[in-house]
Amino acid sequence: MNGIFDLPRISKLVVTAIFLILLIGMSIVFGYTNTSVQLAYEAFTNFDGSNEHLIIQTVRLPRALIAASIGASLAIAGVYMQTLTKNPLAEPGILGINAGASFAVVSVLTFFQVSSLSIFTWVSFLGATIAALTVYFVGGIGRQGLTPMQLTLAGAALTALFSSFTQGILTTNEAALDQALFWLSGSVQGRKLEILASVFPYLVIGWVLALIVAPMMNVIAMGDDVAKGLGLKVGLLKITVGIIAILLAGGSVAVAGPIGFIGIIIPHIARRLIGTDHRWLVPFAGLLGGILLLAADIGARYIVMPQEVPVGVMTALIGTPYFIYIARKGVHKG
User: Fold this and answer.
1) pTM of the model
2) For this UniProt entry, which segments traverse the membrane (predicted)?
């Protein structure tokens, strides 16, 4: 039952995948503009150029695909960060990825008056990458090398530094504040499919790498000493996990801005439902991450209709109670 051909786990994956597809369909159909399943079907099979068909093809379909891809990426990155740092509250932001991307975007807004979403994408990806590489470098300084504690501390320090810089810039530039505020809250609204396409190859590479190293993560989860004793190249694996986090979390932030909590809560839910074997945990967490972000985005359309709540706010509303539960449970265990 613990092998790769585990029928109960396969069944869970299949059911979860079907639910994800269902939510993608709901995301395409539901919204402020009244549409139906039939209208959505006709938009792809018999496009007539109507306003409803245009909205379905150019707004809702990209939005649904972006939410599914970003949710999956953040969840998988969260699984690896929690395993690597042995911190149940770790998420992609622990590498300073969110803070680095935010600082890069706000800096470009302030000093270069750039407002293009496509430019934001690459600037935020660059900022996220530089921040993560810096955390790895700082965390690896010292005799003990890159330990989970040093990585966590380096990430927290760099996050605080970049966040302070970002807030400092925004307090002195009201125009940048107005432009950056919606992006900083995290949103899939208004994102074009071209923006996802520009980083999608990097997300795919991250997903493939995550699946390839999944068996090795089962070993390193037992501790670095055990992993080294079994012949695992721990240093190389940690670098690979860092690359995965940069590709998945950096690409996600580049497309949708910093969206929190998915990388924290989904790995815990996935472990409860499917176990700790990363061969199953990684794809299952990816599916659940896509489901959560899609559900949050659909809900964001109705709370203050006709206006919309940024999906980052919705994930915070959903994730905060579970985050508190995880934190309290961890404290009681300690």
Assistant:
1) 0.89
2) 12-32, 64-81, 93-113, 119-139, 199-221, 241-269, 281-303, 309-327
